[in-house]
Amino acid sequence: MTPAASKLYTDDVSLLMVLIDTNPFFWNSIKSTLSFSKFISNVLAFLNSILLLNQLNQVVLIATGYNSCDYIFDSSASQNQNQRAESLLQKLEEFVEKDESLCREDSVDAPGFSLLSGSLSMALCYIQKVFRSGPLHPRPRILCLHGSPDGPGQYVAIMNAIFSAQRSMVPVDSCILGAQHSAFLQQASYITGGVYLKPQLLDGLFQYLSTVFATDLHSRSFLQLPKPVGVDFRASCFCHKNTIDMGYICSVCLSIFCKHQKKCSTCGSVFGQSQAQDSSTPDRKRKTSVDK
Ligand SMILES: [Zn+2]
Ligand SMILES: [Zn+2]
Questions:
Q1: Looking at the domain assignment, is residue 31 inside a domain?
Q2: Residues with CB under 5 A from ligand 1 (ion)
Q3: Does 195 map to a domain?
Q4: Could you point out which of 144, 193, 265, 283 has its C-alpha 20 to 30 Å from the C-alpha of 34?
Q5: Which domain holds residue 261?
């Protein structure tokens, strides 16, 4: 499914899928550093600058909420350019209200993960639609403006999305707004050849966006973009969704488990007993992390 070079407009025409984190729990936690409204005004200026760079450029904005995700803005669909910002803000407001209404009382004490796996999948679906739409299409890339902590329960879905992006040659760029690094997005950017950046000062967010993430894929080969200092390769076990350093891997389907299982819960393969119980030959035990 890789796009053939002849199908591209030119090297520098981009389709930029921007995924913004609208998780209210996250924004409440950093409101003293960066307010959501200031963040949105930075994003709007960034989207406008992308559209100004090339008239064939296209941007699509997807909101990643706490319970849901949705397409907020598509520059190819908007008719009136003057009302672009208004319609975007209106749709965003409707989305945040709808997302909030889906919130159940009992789910609030969770640390507040946002639905990154869902919005990544939506972005990839949109890109596949563009690939199949006709003979000419822009070069797609995904930019995640993310702040919420990684939801271990989404590990499998996010890894599947990452491998799908890699297969379609779609780089996933990540700009981390929260205090913590995101292991999921570190891996996403590393595997797909995107840029991972955690800005030191969120006051200058637009500067980071415009200097690092506005460059099209062709121009990137001529630039010195930030390189990640390290990637957290730790995986989550499929049984409890915990992040683990060491684990057991099914040799048939590569499912990861934190404890020895008699049978793989994913593919049903039955594991041998003798080697697992004899701790002197732990050849089922493989290290999944080489970080730090
Ligand atoms: Zn487990
Ligand atoms: Zn298996």
A1: yes
A2: 237, 239-240, 258
A3: yes
A4: 193
A5: 235-292
| Confidence (pTM) | 0.82
CA of 259 to the centre of ligand 1 (A): 6
- Strands 172-176 and 196-197, how do they pair? parallel
What is the 4 CA–ligand 2 centroid distance (Å)? 35
* 166 and 29 share one domain: yes
Q: For residue 69, give the H/E element and its range.
A: strand 69-74
Distance 256 CA to ligand 2 centre (A): 9
Residue 121 lies in a domain: yes
Percentages helix, strand, coil for the chain, rounded to the nearest 5?
A: 40, 20, 40
Q: Which ligand is nearest to the CA of 270?
A: 2
The number of the ligand nearest the C-alpha atom of 264 reads 2
Residue with tokens 């803005």: 73
Question: Rounded to the nearest whole angstrom, what is the distance from the C-alpha of residue 242 to the centroid of ligand 1?
Answer: 6
Q: Which ligand neighbours the alpha carbon of 153 most closely?
A: 1
Q: What is the pLDDT of residues 33-82, one digit of tens each?
A: 899 999 999 999 999 999 999 888 999 999 999 889 999 999 888 666 77
* CATH number, domain containing residue 58: 3.40.50.410
Sheet holding 285-287, edge to edge: 256-257, 246-249, 285-287
- What separation in Å is there between the alpha carbon of 253 and the centre of ligand 2? 4
